[in-house]
Amino acid sequence: MTVEELLEKYAAGVLNFSGIELSEANLSGAKLSGVNLSHANLSIVNLSGANLSEANLSNAKLNVARLSGANLCSAILNNASLNVANLIRADLSRAQLRGASLIRAELIRADLSRADLFEANLSSADLREGTLRQANLRHANLNEAVLRGASLTGANLEMANLNAADLNRSDITGANLRDAELRQANLCHANLSGADLSGANLRWADLSSANLRWADLSGAKLSGANLIGADLSNANLTNTSLVHANLTQAKLIRAEWIGADLTGATLTGAKLYATSRFGLKTEGMTCEWIDLSPTGDRSIIQKFHSEDSRDFFNETPPTIRIIVDAALEHEANFALAGAYYQIAQEYRGIKQPPSMENGSRRTIFSFRVDSDEALFPTAYIAILPFLDAVSTQNNIFNILEIINNEIVTNPDLSSLKSPDIVKKLNILLEQAMSKATTIKQMKKNIEVAAKLNFCKAPTQIILTNSSAHTLIVYDNPNFGKRFINRSTLNASGYDDISSESTKYILPSLNMIMDFVKGFHYISN
Q1: How far is the first Cα of the chain from the last one, in angstroms, to the nearest whole number?
Q2: Are 459 and 325 within 8 A, CB to CB?
Q3: What is the distance between the alpha carbons of residues 319 and 511, in angstroms, rounded to a whole number?
Q4: 231 by DSSP, 3-state: which?
Q5: Do residues 167 and 142 lie in contact, with contact meaning Cβ atoms separated by under 8 Å?
Q6: How far apart are CA 192 and CA 233, in angstroms?
Q7: Which of 60, 191, 266, 460 is a Cys-bridge partner for 323, taking CB atoms 3.0 to 4.6 Å apart?
Q8: Rounded Cα–Cα distance for residues 347 and 82 (Å)
Q9: For the residues of 489-508, what is the DSSP string, one character each?
């Protein structure tokens, strides 16, 4: 069939030209909206400027075809072959290209908004400045594709292959790149804010000056990646591999990176305001200084000498554990949730609800804090809903007195890393004591919880510092001794031992000082 015959029949209302042979034909500017050219051979055909909107081109051969400026809006091109085709400025919005082959195709400034490219092969394709907003590229092959300056906002690239792809200055805001292959990809200056990159392979990728604010990189592999000057503010880097990654002057303000592996990484000049420095692997890390200023303006610089950075970055997060010698009941669970909610409204040191381990005999409440210095004051507040609160608080106060007296009698106590530790401990405890008084006076949920049998059970309060040293600040004498001596049982089923006899049971001086010496304190 000739071009003239096809156009004549189409004008007469014929739409089905499935399997037609038209290789090397000239159909530039042709108006063929809704035509059926499935399984047709259109290789090397000139369809520049043609209107093929809503056309059926599934399984068609369009290799080396000229489709520049063509209208393929909502066209069906599933399993079509468009290798080395010229689709510059073509409109492929909402087109179906599932399983299509576009190897080395030219798609410069093409519009692929909302197009379905599931499992499409775009290897080495040129998509410079293309529009792929909300496009489906799940499992697509974009190996070595050029996407420089392209818009991929909201696109689905889950498990896509972008190995060595060029995404320089591309906009990938809010895109789904979960488990995507991005090894050695160029993402320099790319906007990935809010993108889901969890589990993605970004080994040796160039992310220098990239915008990764609020991005999810949990479990991602960034070994050897270049993140110089990247903005990772509020990013999720939980359990992320950053082995030998370069984070020089990267912005990590308020980033979450518990469990991240920074082995051999470079972190000099990183901006780390309000970022936890615990729960990290830092062996062999290079870090000469960091920026702790709220806006990253270098107004607060922390410098390190030789191995000093290890005292800042540590694998063990400071933790408070309240171990209750009773199984948690639904009523107590509800009451304590309300109590800790109200406590958190007054005391900012408790940023998150405690994690809980429920056993048939005991319950453990664990609170993580941002610094070693926050352990004593936060424990002073966290114990408030329990009957053991007064005894625990007295012990904490007396432990601080022991530390103060030891500093007075040994003013040259060189084993403490900074004399400011004790001063800060005292200030923070005074603030906690004041807050505790306010909370007890104003918060009714504390009273409700305190009346429950669960909160009257014996407790043990254990602090763990960033050096993994532990200190039992209070251990109720009845803890673990339920029903041992039935002749002295009280109403709760525990031995009736007066609080007066247990009030001053404290850890030894050596235990207390060893615990404080293990603090990793960094001055501003």
Answers
A1: 81
A2: yes
A3: 17
A4: strand
A5: no
A6: 12
A7: 460
A8: 63
A9: B-TTSSB---HHHHTT----
Take residue 357 and report the two structure tokens written for it: 């381990």
Beta pairing class for 289-291 and 270-271: parallel
Amino acid at 490: N
Question: What element of type H or E holds 323?
Answer: strand 319-324
Which residue(s) pair with 445 in the sheet?
A: none
Give per-10-residue mean pLDDT for the chain (524 aa). 93 96 95 97 97 98 98 98 98 98 98 98 98 98 98 98 98 98 98 98 98 98 98 97 98 94 96 88 92 92 79 81 96 93 91 92 94 94 95 95 84 55 89 92 81 94 92 93 55 49 71 87 51
Token couple for 254 = 């308020």
- In angstroms, the CA 400 to CA 426 distance is 7
Pairing of strands 459-464, 363-368: unpaired
Q: CA-CA distances (angstroms) from residue 68 to 20, 387, 465?
A: 22, 78, 65
Token pair of 124 as six digits: 């080495």
Q: Name the 3-class secondary structure at 369.
A: coil
State the sign of the Cα–Cα–Cα–Cα dihedral 398, 400, 404, 409. positive
496: number of Cβ within 10 Å: 12
